[in-house]
Every structure is written in C-alpha cells, then in structure tokens.
C-alpha cells in the first residue's frame, strides 16, 4: 500500500550502505532522528467536514478522515515534515473520485454554486505545494483523478493515444506497450505521477532528449472548466494564432480540470542502452555535454554529475570492490579526485544507436572522457525511479534531503550552479550546521540545461527547527535563482511554494497575461487558489 | 527595386518555358491577361491623410501617397488583384519607420492618445491580409519595422542571437554567417519576410525538420505594448506556468509590436545536400515519408509531391532532354504515370549526413522508391525562394495562381487532401472553368504533416469576376479544411482572411482565451484591428 506519510510503496525500502553512512557523518556529522506521528493520531485531529453534498453527489465524495489525510499533502520537504510531525494544518473537507467527464462537470457546477474550492489531484507527487488545500474560509474539495486511468483511444498511424488524465506512469506505459508503443515520459515520479499532472505542471522526463518535454508530447485533449468544456483538437502543428494548448500546459488547475490527454507516441525501440563516461574535470565534461546536444547527436538521455555528486554516488553505491577497481582504473587514465560522471542513453534502431554511440564516444574522447561501458549505466537504469525512496532511508538516520532545480542558458550555467551550491552549503552556518550539496545537469538543450542540486542536512532537535532550516535554504536559494537568470522551475512547476518567485521571472506584464486567463475562466477563484498566482 | 504591385525585385523575372505553356493550355485552356493599373494612377487616388503628427513625430511618419500605396497590401491573391486593378480600397494614412524601442513607444502612446489604429508591418509578405488597413472610422498608421534590422547581440555558447524585429531573412543569415552560425529558418518568403513577422505569424521554414518552426527558434525578446514593455527572458525550458512566449507567437500585432527577437542558432553545417527519390504510387511514397519522420531519421527537409504536382513540375521545368531521359529510366524501374517525387535534405556533420542518407535510402527502397541522386535536389535548392515570382509569369499569360495550406494528423491526410483537391478542381465548374490543382506534403511530424495545394485558373474577363472565382475557391475550401480536422493555417497565420474560420478550430473557449488576452493588452482595440480575431 502507498505510504501515507512519505514516498511510494510502504513495503519497499532502500537501505543506506555502511560506507554511505560514514561518508555523510564525515561531511555533516551524525544525525539524530525525530519521532514520527502515527496515522491514527493524525486522523483523530481531522476536523468535521464542511461539505454536505446532496444525494446525487453523495456517493462521489469521500469525507472519511483517513482519505482526507492521504490527500492533504504532496512530496515537498515541507509536506514531509508536516506528515511526519502530524502538523498538517489544513485538510481537504472531502475527496471526490470522478469516473467521467460528466461527473467532473457535476462537481464543478456544485463547487460554483456552493462556493467551494476545488483542488485537482493527480498522483499527489507535487514537490511545490500544488495540491495542498489552503484556508481561505471556503470548504475545500480535492478532486482525485485516479479513476480516469484508461487508454481511451489509439491511432497507430498518427501515433496518438488518448488517456484519462488520472493515468499514472506505469499504466500509461503498460497500456501502450501492448500495442507496440511508448510515450517515453519518465520523470523520477513516474511510479505515481499522472499524465494529467504532467500536463498541468509542465513536467519533463529523464529521456526528454529523445521524446521531448510534456509540451512536445501533449497533442490536445479535454479540460472541464467553469465556462464549459475546452476541447483541444490535435494538429501536427499550426500557425493559427496563439496556441491554447500552451495556456493549459502549466495552468496547474487554475483554468479547469484536465480530464483527457491526447499524447504523441513513439514505436518501442529496437535497442536501448545507457553508457557511462568519466571526465577528469568539470570544464571538459560540461563542454562535451554542450557539444553533444548542440551537434544534435541522437542521444535519448544525458546526465552530468559534478565532482561532489560523482564522489557521493560512488560512496553511496555500496559496491566497494567494483568501485575501488573503477577508481584505480580512472586514476591511471587521468580522472582522479575531481572526476565527473556522465551517463548517456542511446535509443532507436540498432543502426541509429550504433551511430549515436560512435559519435558520442568521439566527442567525449576529444574532451578527455574515459568511456567505461554500460555497467554503471545499467545500474542507473535499474534504479532510475527509486531515488525518492532515499529520503526515507536518510530520515531514519536523522537527515533531511531536498532538491532544487532550475534551467539557464549555457553562458550562465557555471555562475548559477556556483551561486546555488555556495548558498546551500553555507546557508546553515549561522546555526553551526553543515549541508552536503551536489549537483547534476540533465535535460540538455542547445541553449542551456537544467541544474539539479541535492542538499542533505541534519534534522534539528525539533520539527520547527528542521522546517526553519529548510525554509531558509529554500527561500534564499529561490531568490538567488530568479535574480540570476534561472527559471524558478525547469520541471516541478510553480505550485504554492514557487508562486512568490514567479513575478520576477514573468515580469509585470507576463503576470498580467496569466492573471487575465485565470480570471476569464474562473472569475470567482474557485479552482486551486493560491497556486501558480496568489 | 521592389515591385509595388507584386512579388519581389522588379528586375527579376521567371520565364515560363513553351512546354509549360502548352501543358497549362491543355489542362485549363489558354489565358487572356487583364490590364494592370499604373503606379501613378493609383497614387492619384490616395486620399488626404488624416494624421497630423506633432513636431516630435513629424520626421518619423511618411504620408506621401507612394509610400502609402506600397504599404497598403500584402501578397494574397486578393491583394494581387487589388494592386493590379488599382482598386486598393483602404490605404494607411501614413507609414512610420521607427529605429528604436523608444520611437515605437512614442508611436504607441500617440496612437492611444489620438485613437489611431496601428498596423505592424514586417516584410509585407502576408498572404492572409495581416497588414491590410481596415476602414473603421479611425485613421491608420502602418508601422514598418525595416529600420530595426541589425544583429544586436550574439552569445556563442548559448547560441542565441538578438535581432531587431525588422531584420529580413537574408540579413539574418548574412549577419550570422559572419560568426559561423545559421538560424536555419527558410520560409519561401525568406527574401523579404522578417524575423519579427515570423514570430508574429508563427512561420515555418523549409528545413523545419532540422531547425524547428519559429516556435522552437524564438527564445525570447521584447514586445512594446500599450501597457508597457513585455520582456521575454530566455530559458532553455521552464515549467513555471503557461509560457508567455507562446502567447506572443501568433499574436499578429494584437498584443503589441515585437521589436526584438532572441533566436536559437545552430553552427553552420559541415555538409548539406538535397536528394530526390521517385515512388511508383502515392501510397508507397506517403508511407515512406511517414516512416522517415516517425523513425527519427535525421533529415533536414522533406517534401513529397503528389502525382499531378510531380507531372506539373517536370513539365514546367523546361529541361526536356534531361527530364525525358529521367522519365524513361523511371518507367523502366516501375515509376511511371502516377509517380511521386520526394525531395529530402541531409544537413550536419559529414558522418551524420552519411548515416542519415543511408537510413533514408533504405526506408525509401523498402517502399519501392527509386533514388536518383542530387541533381534534381540541387535544382530545388537553387530555386527554393523563387516560386513566388511564378505568379508574375502566369499573370502575364492570363492565369491566376494561389496556394492553400493546412496540416492534419496522418490518419486524415489522404481524406483531407482529397477533399481540398476535389473542391478546388470542381469549384469553378458552374462557370465552365477548369482549375489545375496539385499538392505536396512538407513539414513532417510524427503525428501528421502539412498539406500544401497549388491551384491555377484562368482570370475572368474582368477583375470582379477574377476575384469572385478566387473567393469562391478560397472560402469553400477553407470551410472544408476546418470542418475536416485541418488547421486553417500551418504556416501563413490567420490575418483577416482566415479569421472567419478560426472559431471552428479554436472553439468557443479557445476564442475566449485569445480575446481576453487581446483586451487585456489593448482594451481600446488600437492594434491591428480585425486581424486574428474580429
């Protein structure tokens, strides 16, 4: 069953190898875990519901405390601390699980009539507070889309599939695989996040280099709004004015509820493999990565860890003999202390993969890269969706872990990366606490790339102190990002956590445009209040 | 000098070979040309200007009749007939040529104060009535962006160039070439159209398969609006809410005047070549084209002519000996009467081009394609921007030529293509007139492709009759397109000519979204009235 107070399946646990524990203790000291609240104690604190649906809606809406607890929070670190401490704050007054467009329209009409806030809920994997209810005096109904999870149509010529918006990653892929297709959208949250959520929050997957971001995969669909049904027809491309799809992408529930997604597919590849190259220094590694994408080498994924992430990953990997041998080999070939690990994938026909691999190896070699084959790449592929479980393992040891991500142009990558890491590393110095910080680049574009930084710090002796540590790091770094040409989010969306920083990025007139759309579709601010724009 | 009443440079003429004349006469009968109005006679009919700029704007605004004539019309067939007959209808009251953002802001402020309609003007190449002034009682000032035509900045690492919005295609490329870069945006209007116009009307170039549409190339920039300056920052990608760039793309002057465009570049390729393959039948040809793009073969352009277009092109090419030999060879290899010509390009490193060429040849061969090398491809490349001059040659012979284009999903390509061609072919039967109709597919996507249909008909014995013939064909086919899952335009935008058909495509709520943006930025409808939305 799904964990009520953390990530994923409660029967699955990642253990931290001893060597990894020692590594972290060395860097930031030993942790001391905080006590978790129990589900029972939290359920006991859920207030009476303020919803009183009539008989026609009664069966659709679940107001039991446990259901409301399980839909109250996402997966940000603030959400985690709320769930672990039991200090949830606001709970939704009920959770509706509609099974049809008709039921979604009923819920919208009811919410408009009764002045109820609606919060759309996909996989509940937001790390930016998208699905957290707020207290603005109105009752809150969370609309969980999980029953609308089927492949509704597939056009094999146009390679377009229509899905219910609540279809989670594994169900998207398994239903397509039966027909010989893949969507190819693999965010780290893949196990739980949904295709409608990907569209609503402008998600990007690990193989976006081949398949594109959700913006490129989203061909059209259906949005139920308070003004009626918005149907987005599918065209391969169009010059007929502003693209309405692009207004729905990233709308985060403010315009309406996405109920159906038409997505662009690819035939299952003949071949796929993941390869690892080590570089002796960051400059060579970053340059090689930039050239791979600017030269249009047909890779399906690319990820470049900086020296500290490389060191951390090798230390936490737990295969000490293998890693030891590897490190001796790399050291002999010039990649020592400051080495940086690049993982890349090739996907397609055998011939395409062979060509791309040759091209990539040539570029890497020209920049001092040492190619090590597919062994570590296979490990990456095997564990690609399990990283979120790591938070649990660290938590048990008294550590909190979070990530921050942005994207910027190439001329600014080193500058912004340095600012982010330094700010996080020194951010708790006034508390005499250290932070362990490391970064990778992923999602490469000719223009720039995403910067994905992980930071680990010790929990405080109380929840309040732990939250304060996180808030300081998160807020100051977010300010730094938008002040220095970074987007507030490359792949996690805005939600409530990033909303204060959005105006710097969009500017006054950009915000005016977004607000005018929100108020046109939802003049009474019924839908997902305080998300995206305050 | 630029032709005042048609396409391009007045010293350049395409001659129609004798064989081509015979071909057309055989298909639709001999033409009988109409008499052209003179520039002098048109200038004499230009009314007094209604503008009276104060001294601070006086030097910026040209109210001479000839200037107003030269900025009154675009390049649609209706514009052509207006220019040739001298029946222009509405002229702008003056033409401003600002050289800076500051001057654009001055013009906006003046227009708002004096209640003057502003029409932004790039290269004047619209084929959908974008830049035609309308008579709604207000004076009209056309703002020609041609003085803002410089490369303002180039970031070689991020591969981003900043251009003045009025920079035309050749100046874009020549300024970039000096630095080793290309934008790679080559619409047929390349010679005259501007980078700002491409953004405003969502243009697509002949090599969009490699470089992307203008949507992919437009990284950000600057729009002067009546509410202030809208600055679009550059990010490689972002999940931070709806993308404001996508609201500016296709806004056709309704939100503001685009003054600066930041565009994504590519290094000049090591190699580029264009190749031609003939297929014995449409089915094989269309299937091969679809697979090339769905298999992600790294082509830089792809164009597939149907049998009538293939026949017409070979007949009009004028190299009768070469073509005769080719046809005998193809006939021997199974590509006879119904043969279809595919042209494709490979661009990139030598190795990439070699790999892509191999892959493309393999796919074509598997679908009965006969590869004929680069000779015809070279001819295509040499003439790629001269097709618009053909209208002049046909006009002298008493023929009118126009094109219609759309895009649709693969499952609908044959259906829609058939409907369009049949409707055009039979459209003048009530007048006992024939139309010569042929089509190519270009701009291929995994999901579908564009359909580009050319039609030639005899002019009537009067201008009114000629216009009536065109209106009947254009209107009835446009209705058919949007009623049958086609976009009203894949690459030419909406303008005034396509505006009546847009609501079918966008739906009521899509139109609501667009209208709300327009009225937010331009509540008094000062900017380019009746364009995009009525």
UniProtKB/TrEMBL annotation, chains A, B:
Q: Which residues form the FAD-binding PCMH-type domain?
A: 88-268
Question: Which residues of this protein are annotated with the site description Important for enzyme activity?
Answer: 303
| One Gene Ontology term of the molecular function aspect | alkylglycerone-phosphate synthase activity
Pfam families documented for this protein = FAD-oxidase_C, FAD_binding_4
Superkingdom field: Bacteria
Keywords assigned by UniProt?
FAD, Flavoprotein, Transferase
Q: In the UniProt entry, which residues are flagged as the active site? A: 452 (proton donor/acceptor)
- Binding site residues for FAD: 120-126, 252-258
Q: Some GO term, biological process aspect, for this entry: which one?
A: lipid biosynthetic process
Q: Which cofactor does it need?
A: FAD
What enzyme class is recorded for this protein? Answer: transferase
Membrane-spanning parts: none
Q: Which InterPro entries does this entry report, sorted A to Z?
A: Alkyl-DHAP_Synthase, FAD-bd_oxidored_4_C, FAD-bd_PCMH, FAD-bd_PCMH-like_sf, FAD-bd_PCMH_sub1, FAD-bd_PCMH_sub2, FAD-linked_Oxase-like_C, Oxid_FAD_bind_N
Enzyme Commission number(s) of this protein = 2.5.1.26
Indicate which residues the UniProt annotation says bind substrate: 391
Which family, according to the similarity comment?
Belongs to the FAD-binding oxidoreductase/transferase type 4 family.
Query: Can you name this protein?
Result: FAD/FMN-containing dehydrogenase
């Amino acid at each position: 069953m799904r964990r009520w107070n953390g990530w994923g399946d409660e029967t699955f646990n990642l253990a931290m190898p001893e060597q990894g524990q020692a590594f972290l203790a060395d860097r930031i000291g030993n942790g001391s875990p905080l006590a978790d609240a129990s589900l029972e104690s939290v359920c006991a604190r859920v207030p009476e519901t303020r919803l009183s649906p009539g008989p026609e809606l009664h069966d659709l809406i679940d107001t039991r405390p446990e259901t409301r607890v399980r839909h109250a929070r996402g997966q940000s670190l603030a959400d985690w601390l709320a769930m672990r401490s039991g200090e949830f704050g606001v709970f939704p007054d009920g959770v509706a699980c509609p099974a049809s467009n008709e039921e979604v329209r009923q819920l919208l009409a009811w919410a408009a009539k009764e002045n109820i806030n609606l919060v759309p809920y996909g996989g509940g994997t937001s790390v930016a507070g998208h699905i957290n209810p707020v207290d603005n005096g109105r009752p809150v109904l969370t609309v969980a889309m999980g029953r609308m999870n089927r492949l509704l149509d597939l056009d094999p010529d146009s390679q377009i599939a229509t899905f219910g918006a609540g279809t989670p990653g594994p169900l998207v892929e398994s239903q397509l695989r039966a027909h010989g297709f893949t969507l190819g959208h693999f965010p780290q949250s893949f196990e739980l996040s949904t295709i409608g959520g990907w569209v609503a929050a402008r998600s990007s997957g690990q193989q976006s280099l081949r398949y594109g971001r959700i913006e490129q995969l989203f061909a059209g669909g259906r949005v139920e709004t308070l003004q009626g049904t918005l149907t987005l027809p599918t065209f391969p491309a169009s010059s007929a004015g502003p693209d309405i799809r692009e207004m729905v992408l990233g709308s985060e529930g403010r315009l309406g509820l996405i109920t159906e997604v038409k997505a662009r597919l690819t035939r299952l590849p003949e071949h796929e493999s993941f390869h690892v190259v080590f570089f002796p220094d960051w400059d060579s590694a970053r340059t090689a990565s930039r050239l791979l994408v600017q030269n249009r080498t047909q890779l399906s994924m690319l990820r470049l860890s900086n020296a500290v992430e490389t060191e951390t990953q090798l230390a936490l990997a737990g295969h000490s003999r293998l890693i030891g041998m590897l490190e001796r080999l790399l050291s002999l070939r010039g990649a020592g202390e400051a080495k940086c690990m690049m993982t890349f994938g090739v996907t397609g026909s055998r011939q395409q993969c062979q060509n791309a691999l040759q091209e990539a190896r040539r570029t890497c070699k020209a920049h001092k890269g040492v190619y090590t084959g597919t062994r570590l790449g296979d490990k990456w592929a095997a564990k690609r969706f399990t990283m979120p479980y790591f938070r649990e393992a660290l938590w048990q040891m008294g550590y909190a872990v979070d990530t921050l991500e942005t994207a910027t142009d190439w001329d600014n990558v080193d500058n912004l990366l340095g600012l982010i890491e330094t700010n996080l590393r020194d951010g708790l110095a006034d508390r005499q606490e250290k932070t362990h910080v490391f970064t990778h680049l992923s999602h490469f574009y000719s223009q720039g790339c995403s910067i994905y930084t992980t930071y680990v710090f010790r929990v405080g002796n109380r929840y309040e102190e732990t939250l304060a540590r996180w808030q300081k790091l998160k807020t100051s770094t977010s300010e730094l990002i938008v002040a220095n040409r970074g987007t507030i989010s490359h792949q996690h969306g805005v939600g409530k956590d990033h909303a204060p920083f959005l105006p710097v990025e969009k500017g006054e007139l950009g915000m005016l445009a977004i607000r005018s759309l929100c108020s046109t579709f939802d003049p009474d601010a019924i839908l997902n209040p305080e998300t995206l724009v305050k």
